[in-house]
Amino acid sequence: xxxxxxxxxxxxxxxxxxxxxxxxxxSRRNEVAAIASRQEDKARQLAEELNIxxxxxxxxxxxxxxxxxxxxxxxxxxxxKEWSIRAAEAGKHVLCEKPIAxxxxxxxxxxxxxxxxxxxxAEAFMYRYHPRYDILKEYIASGAIGxxxxxxxxxxxxxxxxxxxVRFRKDWGGGSIYDVGCYPINAARILLDxxxxxxxxxxxxxPEHDHVDMMASGLVxxxxxxxxxxxxxxxxxxxxxxxxxxxxxxxxxPYAYSLPENGANFFLTTGEGRxxxxxxxxxxxxxxxxxxxxxxxxxxxxxxxxxxxxxxxRVIDACLKSAHERSRIVL
Length: 331
What we know:
This protein is of the alpha/beta class and 331 residues long.
């Protein structure tokens, strides 16, 4: 086996601490070599807590470290473009949290910078690296549920009381469509292997939360009169189901995006009845890291390209435009 991919972490965000860093540390092909924060004490404390050897008091210092191969960026959304480009220009491969940018144009600029620097830029939709999604696509391709007639999905949680949450800063790219609505959109594109034709979204923009969308409901139209209907929110009960409706059957995924490591099973309903489909246990964050390591170290094609991230942002742009204008947006 070739050497491991050496990671630096730009920031001490909760998602990095509780999920991404442990996932990389548990993976086969990766090691977390350094972490940086604008508060040196914060970086040092987290490094000690998570057994990371090196901590830096600035992002720039980490990017200058020649022993770092790749960086993970869990910074607030409005900083994704700047630090992804700076990392690429420093010769580092980049895994950037979703949404990869604030607009399609920003994402395209980031993609160009990565291509120019000859590095990989990947969007951190970890859920899609879990083996469950390959299994779902196999069932769809087999015709087990017939032709797909529609997809329904949701991703909601309630953090409305946390007034200091960065997700409630409009100028920082806050809002539920950016934060969790991006998941059903991404999943529908993967499962249908198509790009949408139009979107219509209604949203609740909360004055108490800097007028970001705290709840949104949308219709995403694909060719063949197949649609994704979704809702997303940061002021609603926790849930993240996915339902794929076919002419001959139905697939139900109770926890589609926030995956329990040992609870990724789903349900298949056909003319023969409803049965639970067992899915192998896996850490989606570890799987994500190993696929990126294979691309960097072994030269394997990146499964989800930067262009895929740009296309996902195109749909998010349209959803936000539709919500603000209360109109149907053709893509």
